[in-house]
Amino acid sequence: xxxxxxxxxxxxxxDWASQPYNTLLVTFIFAPFVKDLMGSGTAxxxxxxxxxxxxxxxxxxxxxxxxxxxxxxxxxxxxxxVFSVMYVLGAWGLWYAVPGDFKLMAIMISFAIGMIGMExxxxxxxxxxxxxxxxxxxxxxxxxxxxxxxxxxxxxxxxMLLLLQASxxxxxxxxxxxxxxxxxxxxxxxxxxxxxxxxxxxxxxxIPFFLWVREPRKPDALPIGTALRGAWPELRAxxxxxxxxxxxxxxxxxxxxxxxxxxxxxxxxxxxxAGVLNWSITLIGxxxxxxxxxxxxxxxxxxxxxxxxxxxAVIITSLVVxxxxxxxxxxxxxxxxxxxxxxxxxxxxxxxxMVLGGMIGACGGALQSASRTMMVRQADPEKITEHFGLYAxxxxxxxxxxPLAIGIxxxxxxxxxxxxxxxxxxxxxxxxxxxxxxSHGDPAPEGPPTS
Length: 451
What we know:
The chain has 18 helices and 2 strands. By secondary structure, it is mainly α. Residues 445-451 have low confidence and may be disordered.
């Protein structure tokens, strides 16, 4: 028998299984490795910006439509299966990024396939959240899920650093041993293994999700073909009604900007540390472990704060702190820290960046958990997957802005520190728009009907 507690645990396992794509590939291991492949931090940040930005456009265009299909058909699991396959295949393909013998386009396409699979699967699993408990417990459930996911990401980082990835100088891992499975350091197999590790981790730990999570049957569910044909008119009606849902629309716009900014921080954090501070991938991995520890801790604490004070208060606090943190990061380099000159051998830039990185993890964990809860409060229960599709759209419709703006700004300025300044603007825009969001959503849909 599948109990309510087991369903919640099964749902949490999606966060546990999927988080390594963000932790290992988007931020801390594979993204900095692109710098080694390209031979230049500026070139890598430019290419990465364009690649992630284009993937974001595809995610933005597809999420709401697929959500409408799922709501009309009453089925989410088949979609999660399909996108899980994309996740695994895309992550595995990064094994073929062999230094000196790789096709950049093929590697970026593989990364994009996995990223699209992860984001689409997330849209459908997020839509299951309201079915897991009463509204007064949703914050705790969401926060604990994010915390569980961060712990999964941290463990995979430990696996990489202690057992698989070796120092280029010593050929040994942080544990002082040779990489497991005879991985060749000369061809960077020890680092390229991050792709297969991410794929295998996801495939194994999605098993509890598929065994324990069941979606309720909808009496008015339509066959997939019928749902597919009617999805666009349904979505068009929903979009047409958005101006009459002020709180929902304001939240979608606000999250559109601040989540894009947060993704920009995660996407380029490792590249920034490698290019500006000359950190090794191993040191960036340790930086990632710190971020996952603070992320897990504050996602859990944020879930409790969410249930007590509401998600809006958690989001505002996180955005204010994040804005100050990014301003601080721009002011860190090997030559100076917050405007104070330092010697070339000073550890102060590294310490300052570590501290700010821990704060990013803390704010990011609380922010993402509270945003998921806020979306539940804003959404129409009858169109929950479609609205989470719009939530994905709001996160990805401008998901190309941060990467492309960072890529363009970096290319024009020729400076990585200047290149990340668009993130500050996006965070402030999100904060301003949040002022128009009601904590409990719109009292009732106004204006023309939504279907």
